[in-house]
Amino acid sequence: MNHETPLLLVEDEPHIAQGLIFNLEEEGYQVTHVETGEQALEQLLKKAYALIILDLSLPGIDGLEVCDRLRSQGNQIPILILTARGTEQDRITGLSKGADDYLAKPFNLKEFLLRVAGLLRRANWQPSSPENKFYTFGSNQINLETDQAVTDHGTIQLTELEMKMLLLFFAREGKVLSRGELLKEVWGMSPKTETRTLDNFVVRLRKYFEIDPTKPRYFRTIRGRGYCFIQNPEGN
User: Fold this and answer.
1) pTM of structure
2) Do the bridges between strand 51-55 and strand 6-10 make them parallel or antiparallel, or are there none, so unpaired?
3) Given 93, 123, 153, which residue is the final one in a domain?
4) Nearest CA-CA partner of 200 in 225, 227, 175, 223
5) Which whole number is the average pLDDT over 11-26?
6) Shared-domain flag, residues 144 and 218
7) Among residues of the chain, what percentage have pLDDT more than 90?
8) Are 187 and 176 a contacting pair, CB within 8 Å?
């Protein structure tokens, strides 16, 4: 079961993450590591994982919110929560949000590896392509593997940065993303950077995906706050 089984580790403490990655890879697992809940949601759009190992205390969206969103979307990936919050009430809260197992820090490494193996065995995971290989909104369809979009304006090969921005919008659908968040997450810039790059990218996305770019329905400007992506606007 172990060999080439892909796991997603969501942990923002580097020393803990490095130790877990080393030991999981020693067991034969393939580990993808991200540090935030937003990155986890983006990654799950791109690839099928057998298990998500999820820290609760994360910058931005916390682990409970990630759990909540995945389950509300119908994603049944097994979730093992790791947390410094070890009270019985914390455990109940985590499990009520859809987690499959819960391990309080500090934990025994051998027990951790047994929990991982047990969850994978119960899930009986088999390698497959992600069910959500395509992301659709309106008449637009994006292939998340090839980064190709089919739109009313034709077929478009999206750039890496365009995909990065789109995946962030998709992961945060319905939420307002500030200019600072977008600059930091997509370009790695300081949130205080003064640049038109971001606005030019939004203009480009509207040209690709909006019927009338001057009256955007999907990629909306929220005055004074930032931008918001709406997958299914009313009347769509």
Assistant:
1) 0.61
2) parallel
3) 123
4) 227
5) 92
6) yes
7) 32
8) no
